[in-house]
Structures are given as structure tokens and as C-alpha cells.
Amino acid sequence: MRLRYLLPAAVLVVLIVLFAFGLQHDPRAVPSPLIGKPAPDFSLRVVGADTPFTRDDLLGRPLLVNFWASWCVACRVEHPLLMELARQGVEIVGIDYKDTDAEGLRWLQRHGNPYRHVVADTQGTAGLDWGVYGVPETFVLDAKGIIVHKHIGPLDEDAWRSTIAPLLAGTQG
Amino acid sequence: MRISLLPCALLLTAITLRAAAQPGELTPQQAARYQALVSELRCLVCQNQSIADSNAPLAADLREQVRSQILAGRSDEAIRDYVTARYGDFVLYRPPFKPSTWMLWVGPFLLLAAALAFTLRFVRRSPRASAAPVDPNRLQRLLDEESK
């Protein structure tokens, strides 16, 4: 058996591996260049109030920053999990992205509020600085305000258990 | 004559005023830069469109950023850096050449070179595989047998 007869088979194997890898990979999930960097500065206010809320309010303990909106359908999908996490004592800061205060508050009233703080990003300026391109997106921040992870799309049990929970636990110490 | 001159003068003035750059409006030069920039930035919502083509709200936000930063006198380089700092090299339709992207730039040429090498080998080899030389006597014998 000459080697050249094995070549097509070898090419096929390489292609199968490549395609298998491609199927696992979500082209919509674009890795953020902000991982490992300090969370971008912002100065917003709390939804339905004039209380300012800035980057400094995120420092001192690890937490999740969740960009959501009342008009966002996928946010409904992850909402029960966020409620459960809040019950377990995970601190989640919700940033209401390109939304009105009234709509945002009504949504939280109807579905429940998992957020320790709800912050209004009416114009989406903070979203732009944080590299948000489609809600929901969830950032994991350590106590120093460094972004250690970004989850794009609705948060699920799998991502929480395999990635985010260990990260939050790891940044505690 | 005097009556028709006035509208003409007014029209001319209006045109001149319109052409002169107003604050908040791009000069033709800046508009060209704007067009070039927005057509080479990828929209992350609908990934196969540039932010010039996309109707996504995020694309509108980014267009507005590009416009206002051009007005603020920032260079193309600075604006590109602004966008990649937030969304990564993925937003550039012409990504920079660096360790993580060299395959993207060189890959097609490598494939072409491999295909050429393969073709060349194939073409060179085929004449050698031609039929063995024909013995004219044997051929004649065969033909004779056939015609019997």
C-alpha cells in the first residue's frame, strides 16, 4: 500500500476534525477584547431615580453585571436562572440597556427583580463602551473591577456551573 | 430683468450657504473619510454587513460615533482603535497582521501554492505512465490473425 493512497483518507480525517470543531463554535459569540482588563468607566443613574451609579459602585466584591432590556426576548429565557442565583446570594447588577425607566420597572415588577442594583443606560453609551452588541450579555467582575469573563446570550445552568460559578468563587479570595 | 435677478441671487446665496460647512456637518473630505471607515467596520449584530449597510441599532450608534469623532478631529487610526478596543479585531474587515491573524492573510496563498505544487507533480508524472513501446512485428502478427 503506497502512502499516496492514504492521502485522501488523511485529508478527509483532517476535514472532519475541522468541521466538528466548527460546529462546536458559535460564530455569533465574538471574544471580547476587554477580558482581563478593568471594566470601562461609566456614570449612569439608578432606574427610576436620580441616584448616580458609577464604576466605583462595582468595586470591592466579585459580582455579575448583566445587560438586559424589557424589549429583549432572550432576557426572559435567562431570567429564572438569574432569580435563582439572586436567591443564592449572588450579587447581580442589572444594566437596563436602551430602555425607558417605566418599561424596565414594569418588566421587573411582572417577572421579578434579581438585581441588587438596576442601572439605566437609556442611550446605550455604557453598552457601547463595554462592547455590548446584543442583550443579554453578562460580565463577571472580580473585586478589583477587572472583567474576568463575558457570557454572550442568555445565561444557562451549564455556563453557570462550568464557568461562571468557579470564576466567582475563585475571585473571592 | 430686475425681477428675475433677485430670485437668482437668492438661489445662489442659498447654494453657497448650503455648500459651506456648517458646524455639525461633515466637509466633503470628512464625508469621504466617514464613508471609508463605516464601510470597513463590521456590524456585530448582522455579521456579514458593514456598519454602513446595516440597519441594526448598534450599527447606527457606531456610525454616529464615527461621525462625531471625525468632527472632533480624531484620526482614522484613533477611531479604529476606539472600535477595536471594545469589539476586538473581528470588527475590522481588514484585520491587522499579527500572530493571531497571520493564517488569515497567508492561508489562501499557502493553499494556492500547495494546489500548484500538486498540479505540477501530477502533470509531470502523467507522461511517464504512457503505454509501453509497441513492437511493430507483433502488432502486424495480431492484425494478420484478426483478418484470417
Automatic annotation (TrEMBL), chain A:
It is found in: Cell inner membrane. Signal peptide: none annotated. Keywords: Cytochrome c-type biogenesis, Disulfide bond, Redox-active center. InterPro entries: Periplasmic_diS_OxRdtase_DsbE, Redoxin, Thioredoxin-like_sf, Thioredoxin_CS, Thioredoxin_domain, Thioredoxin_ResA/DsbE_sf. Gene3D superfamilies: Glutaredoxin (3.40.30.10). It holds the Pfam family Redoxin. Belongs to the thioredoxin family. DsbE subfamily. This is DsbE family thiol:disulfide interchange protein. It comes from Sinimarinibacterium thermocellulolyticum. The lineage of its organism: Bacteria, Pseudomonadati, Pseudomonadota, Gammaproteobacteria, Nevskiales.
From TrEMBL, chain B:
Gene3D superfamilies: Cytochrome C biogenesis protein. Keywords: Cytochrome c-type biogenesis, Heme, Iron, Membrane, Metal-binding, Signal, Transmembrane, Transmembrane helix. This is Cytochrome c-type biogenesis protein. Belongs to the CcmH/CycL/Ccl2/NrfF family. It comes from Sinimarinibacterium thermocellulolyticum. Possible subunit of a heme lyase. Pfam families: CcmH. InterPro entries: C-type_cytochrome_biogenesis, CcmH/CycL/Ccl2/NrfF_N, CcmH/CycL/NrfF/Ccl2_sf. Residues 10-135 form the CcmH/CycL/Ccl2/NrfF N-terminal domain. The chain crosses the membrane at residues 102-123. Residues 1-19 form the signal peptide.
